[in-house]
Write a structure and sequence with these properties.
By secondary structure, this protein is mainly beta. It is 5% helix and 38% strand. Among the domains are: 60 residues, Roll (SH3 type barrels); 66 residues, SH3 type barrels (Roll). The radius of gyration is 25 Å and the shape is elongated.
Length: 370
């Protein structure tokens, strides 16, 4: 039996196990990185429910979008975006997901006082960890205690699978790290923990920045073992808050948590500062406005159903009363086209006036909000 003590129990939770692939390295037992068990849940929200007050707690699936390209209201439907070619999105923002097929993912976008469900190509989604998993070496092995653990949703660049592994490079404002993960642990859509409720306000700025601990490590390498020749498991790009686990002579063993990634390793003790002053960590922003000349404007009420076309399917819900530019009356009485701005560009949707008033400013809009 492979003797790794408590580390074996930890490994069972984060994707490690002893086995035939375990090989000794510098006199220390290593363990084989295995694909972890994946949390699963059904898709439980329809576009007509996107205005419900508890909707974000009910949508647990997520995806990161790396490219803003084509979008449609139905799989195989006409493109409704404004992009001739996909545009890279370096921040890889997270979107809620309410459906998926083999080649498409249905994301929910909140913008311009509306929540809408759009089908986008799966290829436009960034690869990510779909379960917590350790990074290993090219043989699929890792130190039983130190190294990098990816949490679900970590920002990554992943190479195609080879021999059951995918080479990974972390995309992170605070850390550099590379390694190999089981191919089965990398995908596009993951299930967020129940406590991690989606917040559209947070999604439009950045993810939570590192939390100040009062102790920080200077920018530089974090090593697998307490010696200068030990392998580098990650590199801090700037001073970062840490927790010191123990001190071994001139080395400190530390734990560092950044954006959806955990690092445990060794740094020279002089690079650690106790009672460090608080630091500010920046984020990013996105969004903007638009105008349409020579267009009728009328109010669309909070909770109004947004349809893909007159008499068609609900694809979203108005959230907050909005004065919208009209796309004109449709061929069906009581139906009007309006314009909604999204990350994929301006989109035309239909709203239904149940009173069938001749003037949309006097309309009684069909509601989806409970």
């Amino acid at each position: 039996m492979c003797e790794v003590g408590v580390a074996l129990l930890i490994g069972a939770a984060i994707g490690l196990a002893c086995g035939p692939g375990a090989t000794p390295a510098t006199g220390k037992t290593r363990v084989t990185v295995i694909a972890p068990t994946f949390a699963q849940a059904d898709f439980a929200v329809s576009p007509a429910e996107l205005g419900d007050t508890d909707v974000w707690a009910r949508i647990r699936h997520r995806a990161r979008v790396a490219r803003v390209g084509h979008a449609s209201f139905a799989v195989g439907g006409p493109h409704i975006d404004e992009h001739e070619t996909p545009v890279s999105n370096v921040h890889m923002p997270i979107y809620p997901v309410i459906g998926e097929s083999s080649e498409h993912v249905r994301v929910v976008v909140e913008d311009d006082f509306a929540r809408m469900a759009l089908w986008i190509p799966r290829a436009d989604c960034a690869p990510t960890a779909i379960a917590p998993v350790r990074l290993g070496d090219a043989h699929g092995t890792a130190d039983p205690a130190t190294g990098v653990t990816l949490d679900v949703g970590a920002r990554l660049i992943a190479q195609p699978a080879a021999n059951g592994l995918r080479q990974i490079a972390l995309v992170d404002a605070y850390l550099d790290a590379t390694g190999f993960a089981p191919a089965r642990a990398i995908g596009e859509v993951w299930l967020a923990p129940e406590h991690e409720v989606y917040d559209p306000k947070l999604a439009t700025s950045s993810e939570p920045v590192p939390t100040t601990t009062g102790t920080e490590v200077a920018a530089g390498p974090i090593r697998e073992a307490p010696r200068d020749a030990a392998a580098v498991v990650a590199v801090a790009k700037q001073p970062l808050p840490i927790r010191v686990i123990r001190t071994l002579g001139p080395w400190d063993e530390i734990e560092l948590r950044a954006e959806r990634v955990r690092v445990r390793g060794f740094v020279p003790a002089p690079t650690v500062t106790v009672n460090a002053p608080p630091r500010s960590f920046g984020g990013y922003g996105r969004g903007g406005g638009y105008s349409i000349s020579d267009s009728v404007v009328f109010d669309v009420a909070d909770g109004a159903c947004l349809y893909d076309r007159e008499g068609g399917d609900v694809v979203g819900v108005e959230v907050g009363q909005k004065s919208r530019y009209a796309g004109g009356a449709t061929s069906m009485t009581g139906w009007w086209n309006v314009v909604v701005n999204t990350d994929w560009g301006l989109m035309t949707v239909a709203v239904h006036d149940t009173s069938e008033a001749a003037n949309p400013r006097a309309a009684s809009w069909e509601t989806c909000k409970k």
